[in-house]
Each structure stands twice: as C-alpha cells, then as structure tokens.
Amino acid sequence: MTAGGAPRAAGGGRGAPITRRALPWVAVLAGLVLIVWFGGRRPDQGVPLDPASPGPLGTKALVEVLGAVGARVEVTGELPAGGAGGTTALLLGDDLDAGRRDRLRGWVRAGGTLVVADPGSPVTGLEPLGGTAVGPLAAELERRCGLPALRDAARVAAPGGVVFEVPAGSVGCYPRGKGSWLVAQPLGAGTVVRLGGASALVNQQLGKADNAVLAASLLAPAAGTRVTVLAPPPPGGGSRGLADLVAPRVKLAMVQLLVAFVVLALWRARRLGRPVVEPQPVQLPGSELVVAVGNLLQRARGRGQAAGLLADDLRRTLAERLGLPASAPPEQVADAAAARTGVPRERVVAALTAAPRDEAGLVALAHAVDRVRREVTSAS
Q: In sequence order, which residues have a C-beta less than 8 Å from that of residue 175 and are 6 or more positions away?
C-alpha cells in the first residue's frame, strides 16, 4: 500500500508548482478580458463638433440654445448665400479650399458676421501666442473688453484654447498674457470673430461660466437672426493635407534645420586648392627585400624556415603548371610531375620535403629546387 501511495504523492507534488506558476498568467488574462469588456462598452461619443451629436464633444446643445433664443438655425455644408444683413455664420472646422474661403470673406464684406472656432483657420492672419491654461490648470477668462455684444458674458471657460495677438484696428477680449482668446476683426461691412478654440461651445462646456451667453450673444444677438452653422467634415473627409496640419513654427524649425545641414555640408565638403605634397613611403627594391630577409634568416639560423619557404614556393609553382590546386600535398604534386614530365618522382619528393642539417645542405636544396622547377617548366 505504501508503494502504491508513493506515485500518487509524487504526482500531486509535481502538479502543485505548475498550478502556482500558471496563476499569475491566468490573472493577467482575466484582467485583459475585463478591460476589453468594460472599456469597449462605452457609449457612442459621436463625431467631435458635430451639431447633431449629443456626446460630450458634440455641439447639439449649442444648436438647441440658439433655437431657444429665437434664432433660425441651419446646419449645412454650404456657404451662406444671399444678403448678409442680419445673418451670422459659425465655422467650427476650416476645411475650405482657397476659392470657398474667398467667397466666405466676400460674404463677410457684404455685412455678415462670421465666428471662426478653428484656431488654425487662415481666414484671417492671426498667429497663436500661447494657451489659456495657467500652469496645469484651465482657469476661466474674464472679458476685460468693451464690446457691447458681450456685456452679459463676463467669464468664459475655454480649456485647451489658445490666445491670439490682437492686430491694430481689432478688439481683443478674454485676455491671457499678451494675447486674447476672442478677437473681433472688421472686414468690409462685416466682422470676423476669431475664437481660440471650440472647447467653449461643445456640450460638456456650454453650461460652464457664461459660455452659453457668449454663444448666444455672438451668433443670435436678436430674435429671428438667421444662423448658418457650417458642419465640420466627417473624419477623413477634410481637404487638408499632412503639410497643412503642421504648425507654422514647426515648418520654420524644419527649414532652419535644413539650412543648418546645408551649411554644415558645405563646411565639411571637399575644398579645391593647391595640392599638398604628402610624404611617400620608403621605396625598397624587391632584390634588397629578398637579401634583407635572407640575412635575417641567416642570423637566426633558420634553415628549416628557409627550406620550408623554398619547398612551398616550388610546390605552388608545380601545382599551377600541372593544373592542381594550390593546396595539393607534395606526394600528389610529385606523382603528377613524374607522370606528365618524366622527372623522377623521388627527386621531386626530395626537393619538396628535404630538411637540411647545415648551410651546405640548404644550398644543395636550393639548387635541387631550381633544377626541378626548370625541368618541369621546360617539359610543360
């Protein structure tokens, strides 16, 4: 019974560590499943700035507020047409081409009021100076301007917005630092109102501070005002390219880097001038090199090394003449030489493998090597 119980105990001991090692991976897998399950079941946020979207970033509440104050709101992708008197337009996202943008400016010159909520729009040449945040905080902005249309909108909450430099002849409101979040620019008989972002107009921000009052004061100053809301393009449907999305300052920095690279390349490039004479290596004739090596071998009494050099040179020469590889052993070379040239095999083997004991033997080996070389060469 004891012998029968031992295997069961051993098997249980092996299974327990495997289970403990698998528990962390099971916990990780369960966490991933929970994240996907709960994180993927968020309500539809809708398209940002979409006038029909009730999501936090939509602008459906803005349309309803304008309708509640008596405005006639039209959400369309077409530019406002007809007489500009008593009409306003809201440009949430500027995806217009140059031609349509010129038509929109012409409509403003005829007396219309255009509110541009896209801070990157080139409708008017305003450059952002900074943001509306104070450090990590998105503080509210005070009006601090004398525009009569904004007398009831004392404060505005515009997180993530930017401020513009106020050009001459324009009025800046809601300042931060050296710029203003709202800039009213006269254009012909009309006015272009630039906002440093559309965050104050989205659903989740419209009820904060005086944002709703600001929107109604700008777009529907009187009951019956016709308001054209230019719907933003759907995701991926805009006309801007990648170069249009890059900020002007980033483009300027890239141009500066390119100029610096060209200057560095010209500075490090090859410059033509008078040739400079460089010291040449010492020229040593081949005969003197052979004599110098021989003298060194003689002083070191390297008879075996000298004999090996003579034999290796003879073996390579004979192998090349007889069509054999350069690494062919001496016996193979001797067999081929004897078969093709008639030179005795023993003499070839002796010339390729001899080990002289003194200088006289080394001299005799040199003569034998030279004789075999001349006989094989002449016979070939």
A: 141, 144, 163, 181
Higher pLDDT, 91 or 303: 91
Going by C-beta distance under 8 Å and a sequence separation of 6 or more, which residues neighbour residue 237? 95
The vertex-94 CA angle with 191 and 143, nearest 5°, equals 45
Q: Are strands 113-116 and 190-195 parallel, antiparallel or unpaired?
A: parallel
Strand partners, 88: 113, 227
pLDDT in tens, 131-189: 888 766 667 899 999 898 899 999 999 988 999 999 999 999 999 988 999 999 999 99
Q: Nearest CA to 61 among 230, 233, 200, 181?
A: 200
What is the model's pTM?
0.53
Instruction: Say how far apart CA 252 and CA 232 lie, in whole Å.
Output: 28
Mean pLDDT along residues 33-57: 70
- Taking only the tens place, the pLDDT of each residue in 62-115 is 999 999 999 999 998 888 876 566 689 999 988 888 888 999 999 999 999 999
SS3 label, residue 174: strand
Q: Name the token pair of 223.
A: 């009951």
- Count Cβ atoms below 10 Å from residue 96 Cβ, excluding itself: 22
Cα distance between residue 315 and residue 369, in whole Å: 10
Q: Which distant-in-sequence residues (6+ apart) come within 8 Å of 177 by Cβ? A: 129, 130, 163
What is the distance between the alpha carbons of residues 13 and 55, in angstroms, rounded to a whole number? Answer: 57
